[in-house]
């Protein structure tokens, strides 16, 4: 297990290097002079030359890449053209907002998805099974940006139950500590603000959770059906063990492997989907940070934002891979 | 004896042909029995017909503005209502099918062609070529796909054509990996070893034997990929990075509906419904095709 863990961690290095190359060449792939594109057609020749020099575009690409990589290793993600601030300094609040949203969405997706899958499998071909699987089919095909708008229309505008957008009440701003607002408000013991943050989180996290939830429910169902056909489960049921015991003690542990794979894969979808959800709900996360940077042609922010999200994705998949072995001792790695 | 020889002669060729015909026939038979897949195929056919006959079916011109009729609720005159320029939403949704299907189909075609070529080369030649191509696929798959598409469009500039290119690029590794694994298993088969032994060229083996034998999984994956491509194109359109107004692309229409949620929710309901139904159709059809053509992939 130790050798596998070490090899799996080492395998991440070439992928990270490759990713840094892709992101590095992104700005260099802009048709024409990137500095001119960033500053616009009306920019003076001096300004273009100054930006070209600042971005290091007047040097050979391999020199630029080595410098870029050296900077990344020191945690330097470049400087935002729009704000003039270091990206590594200003990125955390955005990243924290996305993490809070993604974690909430993933929790909803796992709790509802896994349980819906289990109940569907246990009561196979029942009305619950049919309803849950039809909903899951529709959920997989749902454009989340449309679902987000529908949620806003029904729950925020029509019923007025929840806030339309944002992360906090503008009139009652939160004093950030970790920038994860649920934690911050708890640390400050401010229940009123905690509830406000929770209310703001509900609609975007449900929109973001829909597709992973549908996929997790489908996979859990088929995986559980397979496990429940096995002799030891039949024996457990014949012995008269309660449903709860059979499902959660015996079946789930063996059915969880494919579910874990899907959860790992869905994280990428979730991080990508966060961009769309954040745009609809004006959620100040990294997706919105990148999206706004596109409007200002702020390429260092676009590059670093994409790189940071992709790196998180890689590490989540690494953790999921390592979890397989912990959950299922039958898995042996060569 | 001579009669026996005559009877035996065609044996090596005939079963091969019959087998390949029966695979597709068998697949079609099994697909026809799958009611959910047929519903999916019917939805897809419906949207294809909408796209083809859009000029005949659309009750109004898509760019016909009538400001005195702006943001009107659904009525007999305008079944889906009108948008902020007084344009008929039904007509725009019908024409939108053309754009979405066009982007979905051609982006996937691009991914299939490039992905298959790279996958075939990697799987067939192996060694360092395989190592390089496989690492490129790994790196591309390391990015959340929509994020990579956004990055590509940010570089190329926002337009429908660039969105199509971006969607094609991000799907290349999925097809490349699929074909590579098929090639790896097929190239060990006896008939490929035999073809090589009689001196058949690599190109002939690849394009006459290996590629045709990989068609079933390509079709299955391709159908499901069209569904994803349609959502991705709409997402880029929604973010203002794909089709640009006044193009009646469904994602772009949703983006403009954002400002009128309170006054005119119908401007948001119908384009979204169209995206969801088309995607659902391709997903159901793709699942059915997978069960029919490749029983090993059955979930």
TrEMBL record, chain A:
<protein>
    <submittedName>
        <fullName>ABC transporter permease</fullName>
    </submittedName>
</protein>
<feature type="transmembrane region" description="Helical">
    <location>
        <begin position="201"/>
        <end position="220"/>
    </location>
</feature>
<feature type="transmembrane region" description="Helical">
    <location>
        <begin position="9"/>
        <end position="30"/>
    </location>
</feature>
<dbReference type="Pfam" id="PF19300">
    <property type="entry name" value="BPD_transp_1_N"/>
</dbReference>
<dbReference type="InterPro" id="IPR000515">
    <property type="entry name" value="MetI-like"/>
</dbReference>
<keyword id="KW-0812">Transmembrane</keyword>
<feature type="transmembrane region" description="Helical">
    <location>
        <begin position="101"/>
        <end position="123"/>
    </location>
</feature>
<keyword id="KW-0813">Transport</keyword>
<feature type="transmembrane region" description="Helical">
    <location>
        <begin position="255"/>
        <end position="281"/>
    </location>
</feature>
<feature type="transmembrane region" description="Helical">
    <location>
        <begin position="301"/>
        <end position="327"/>
    </location>
</feature>
<dbReference type="InterPro" id="IPR045621">
    <property type="entry name" value="BPD_transp_1_N"/>
</dbReference>
<dbReference type="GO" id="GO:0005886">
    <property type="term" value="C:plasma membrane"/>
</dbReference>
<keyword id="KW-1133">Transmembrane helix</keyword>
<keyword id="KW-1003">Cell membrane</keyword>
<comment type="similarity">
    <text>Belongs to the binding-protein-dependent transport system permease family.</text>
</comment>
<dbReference type="InterPro" id="IPR035906">
    <property type="entry name" value="MetI-like_sf"/>
</dbReference>
<feature type="transmembrane region" description="Helical">
    <location>
        <begin position="130"/>
        <end position="149"/>
    </location>
</feature>
<dbReference type="Pfam" id="PF00528">
    <property type="entry name" value="BPD_transp_1"/>
</dbReference>
<feature type="domain" description="ABC transmembrane type-1">
    <location>
        <begin position="95"/>
        <end position="324"/>
    </location>
</feature>
<keyword id="KW-0472">Membrane</keyword>
TrEMBL record, chain B:
<dbReference type="Pfam" id="PF00528">
    <property type="entry name" value="BPD_transp_1"/>
</dbReference>
<keyword id="KW-0813">Transport</keyword>
<feature type="transmembrane region" description="Helical">
    <location>
        <begin position="99"/>
        <end position="124"/>
    </location>
</feature>
<dbReference type="InterPro" id="IPR025966">
    <property type="entry name" value="OppC_N"/>
</dbReference>
<protein>
    <submittedName>
        <fullName>ABC transporter permease</fullName>
    </submittedName>
</protein>
<dbReference type="InterPro" id="IPR000515">
    <property type="entry name" value="MetI-like"/>
</dbReference>
<feature type="transmembrane region" description="Helical">
    <location>
        <begin position="218"/>
        <end position="243"/>
    </location>
</feature>
<keyword id="KW-1003">Cell membrane</keyword>
<feature type="transmembrane region" description="Helical">
    <location>
        <begin position="136"/>
        <end position="157"/>
    </location>
</feature>
<feature type="transmembrane region" description="Helical">
    <location>
        <begin position="36"/>
        <end position="58"/>
    </location>
</feature>
<keyword id="KW-1133">Transmembrane helix</keyword>
<keyword id="KW-0812">Transmembrane</keyword>
<dbReference type="Pfam" id="PF12911">
    <property type="entry name" value="OppC_N"/>
</dbReference>
<feature type="transmembrane region" description="Helical">
    <location>
        <begin position="263"/>
        <end position="286"/>
    </location>
</feature>
<dbReference type="InterPro" id="IPR053385">
    <property type="entry name" value="ABC_transport_permease"/>
</dbReference>
<keyword id="KW-0472">Membrane</keyword>
<feature type="transmembrane region" description="Helical">
    <location>
        <begin position="163"/>
        <end position="179"/>
    </location>
</feature>
<dbReference type="InterPro" id="IPR050366">
    <property type="entry name" value="BP-dependent_transpt_permease"/>
</dbReference>
<comment type="similarity">
    <text>Belongs to the binding-protein-dependent transport system permease family. OppBC subfamily.</text>
</comment>
<feature type="domain" description="ABC transmembrane type-1">
    <location>
        <begin position="97"/>
        <end position="286"/>
    </location>
</feature>
<dbReference type="GO" id="GO:0005886">
    <property type="term" value="C:plasma membrane"/>
</dbReference>
<dbReference type="InterPro" id="IPR035906">
    <property type="entry name" value="MetI-like_sf"/>
</dbReference>
């Amino acid at each position: 297990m130790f050798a596998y863990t070490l090899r799996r961690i080492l395998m991440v290095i070439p992928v990270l290097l490759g990713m840094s190359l892709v992101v590095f060449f992104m700005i260099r792939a802009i048709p024409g002079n990137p500095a001119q594109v960033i500053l616009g057609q009306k920019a003076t020749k001096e300004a273009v030359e100054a930006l070209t020099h600042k971005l290091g575009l007047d040097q050979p690409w391999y020199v630029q890449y080595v410098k870029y990589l050296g900077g990344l290793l020191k945690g330097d993600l470049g400087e935002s053209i729009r704000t003039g601030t270091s990206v590594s300094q200003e990125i955390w609040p955005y990243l924290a907002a996305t993490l809070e949203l993604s974690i909430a969405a993933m929790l909803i997706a796992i709790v509802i998805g896994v349980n819906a899958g289990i109940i569907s499998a246990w009561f196979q071909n029942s009305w619950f099974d049919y309803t849950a699987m039809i909903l899951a089919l529709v959920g997989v095909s749902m454009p989340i940006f449309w679902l987000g708008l529908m949620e806003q229309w029904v729950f925020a505008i029509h019923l007025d139950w929840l806030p339309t957008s944002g992360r906090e009440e503008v009139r009652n701003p939160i004093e950030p500590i970790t920038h994860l607002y649920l934690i911050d408000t708890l640390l400050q013991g401010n229940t009123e603000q905690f509830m406000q943050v929770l209310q703001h989180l509900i609609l975007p996290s449900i929109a973001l959770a829909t597709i992973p939830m549908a996929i997790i429910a489908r996979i859990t169902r088929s995986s559980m059906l397979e496990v429940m056909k096995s002799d030891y489960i039949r024996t457990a049921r014949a012995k008269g063990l309660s449903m709860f015991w059979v499902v959660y003690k015996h079946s789930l542990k063996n059915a969880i492997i494919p579910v874990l794979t899907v959860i790992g894969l869905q994280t990428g979808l979730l991080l990508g989907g966060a961009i769309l959800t954040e745009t609809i709900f004006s959620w100040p996360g990294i997706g919105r940070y990148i999206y706004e940077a596109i409007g200002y042609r702020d390429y260092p922010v676009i590059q670093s934002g994409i790189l940071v999200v992709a790196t998180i994705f890689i590490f989540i998949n690494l953790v999921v891979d390592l979890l397989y072995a912990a959950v299922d001792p039958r898995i042996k790695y060569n | 004896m001579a009669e026996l020889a005559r009877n035996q002669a065609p044996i090596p060729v005939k079963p091969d042909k019959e087998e390949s015909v029966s695979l597709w026939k068998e697949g079609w038979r099994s697909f026809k029995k799958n009611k959910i897949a047929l519903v999916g195929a019917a939805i897809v056919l419906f949207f294809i017909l909408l796209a083809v006959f859009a000029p005949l079916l659309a009750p109004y011109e898509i760019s016909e503005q009538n400001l005195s009729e702006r943001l009107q609720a659904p009525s007999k005159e305008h079944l889906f209502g009108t948008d902020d320029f007084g344009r008929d939403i039904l007509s725009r949704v019908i024409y939108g099918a053309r754009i979405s299907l066009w982007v979905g189909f051609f982006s996937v075609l691009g991914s299939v062609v490039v992905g298959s070529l790279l996958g075939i080369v990697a799987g067939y030649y192996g060694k360092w070529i395989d190592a390089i191509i496989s690492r490129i696929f790994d790196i591309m798959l390391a990015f959340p796909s929509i994020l990579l598409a956004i990055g590509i469009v940010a570089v190329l500039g926002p337009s429908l054509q660039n969105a199509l290119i971006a969607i094609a690029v991000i799907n290349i590794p999925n097809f490349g990996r699929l074909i590579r694994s098929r090639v790896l298993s097929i190239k060990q088969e006896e008939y490929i070893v035999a073809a090589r032994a009689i001196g058949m060229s690599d190109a002939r083996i690849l394009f006459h034997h290996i590629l045709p034998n990989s068609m079933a999984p390509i079709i299955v994956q391709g159908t499901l990929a069209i569904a994803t491509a349609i959502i991705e194109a709409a997402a880029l359109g929604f973010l203002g990075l794909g089709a640009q107004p006044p193009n009646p692309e469904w994602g772009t229409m949703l983006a403009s509906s954002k400002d009128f949620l309170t006054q005119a929710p119908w401007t948001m309901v119908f384009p979204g419904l169209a995206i969801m139904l088309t995607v659902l159709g391709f997903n159901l059809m793709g699942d059915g095709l997978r069960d029919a053509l490749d029983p090993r992939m059955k979930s």
